[in-house]
Amino acid sequence: MLVFQIRDCMELQLHKLGNSTGLTLPPSLMRDLGLAAGQLMTLKKTSSGALLLTPKKVQRKYSAAELNAQCNLKAVMPDDLVAWEQMLPVGNEAL
Fold it and tell me: Is residue 47 part of a domain?
């Protein structure tokens, strides 16, 4: 959750956007909070009636190349994988 202290009261106006309503944030505030246009946010009403707006946590998706780049090719294979590779074929695997 981002916490930002606004030194002075900041007045913002809601705007009609088609069938919805939007709030325009000044570029300086966006910069200070590290926000970007198109970013997903969550809005929650607190028990005191205040609105709490926080950036939605998005889990990053990695490509296979990025994941493979993190592998240590010199690492020792775990015993269970060594045993698996040394097993003789059985059942339909033997065909």
Answer: yes
